[in-house]
Design a protein that fits this description.
Strands 3-4-2-1-6-5 form a six-stranded mixed β-sheet. Strand 3 and strand 4 form a beta hairpin. It has about 150 residues and is an alpha+beta fold. About 50% of the residues lie in helices and about 20% in strands.
Length: about 150
């Protein structure tokens, strides 16, 4: 049961990570929309056009980031923390001789009960290697051999 609580905590930290990013991007989009609306034609025509073009680029960039966050939310919705499997899959905690991984989305280092976990995407280089593996399997990553000790 302890491992379920760890998985829940990791999942919740991933949700917080995504929600923070969503909040920040929504603020950027909102502020850029206000700036675009407040841009008025001035006698410095070229300066005005450059400012609008820069805001448009910022809006496009924010839109792409928003799409990425939406994709992260889709990935999170597919994770069933109650599911256990002998094979590493989305939502698995993978304990190796080098590190602990939570196969979910790229959220970086997370800490639960004073232990470090790395939230990694199944499409990341190490995520691709770990996906489908079983306990006692070995993978080679960055010239190092990694042994899978446990999959939860």
């Amino acid at each position: 049961m302890l491992q379920l609580k760890i998985k829940e905590a990791l999942f919740e930290q991933c949700e917080v990570f995504v929600n923070k990013r969503l909040y920040n991007i929504e603020n950027v989009i909102s502020s850029n929309q206000k700036a675009l609306q407040s841009e008025t034609k001035s006698s410095a025509g070229d300066k005005h056009e450059t400012g609008r073009a820069m805001l448009q680029l910022e809006m496009e960039k924010a839109g792409q980031q928003l799409a990425g966050i939406t994709q992260m939310k889709v990935v999170l919705s597919k994770i069933d923390i109650l599911k256990t499997s002998k094979n590493a899959c989305l939502g698995s905690i993978i304990v190796t001789d080098k590190a602990r991984y939570f196969l979910s989305l790229s959220a970086g280092q997370l800490v639960v009960e004073d232990k470090r976990y790395f939230a990694i995407s199944v499409s990341s280089p190490i995520g691709k290697l770990l996906l489908g593996k079983q306990e006692k399997d070995m993978i080679s990553f960055n010239g190092k051999t990694i042994i899978i000790n446990k999959i939860v």
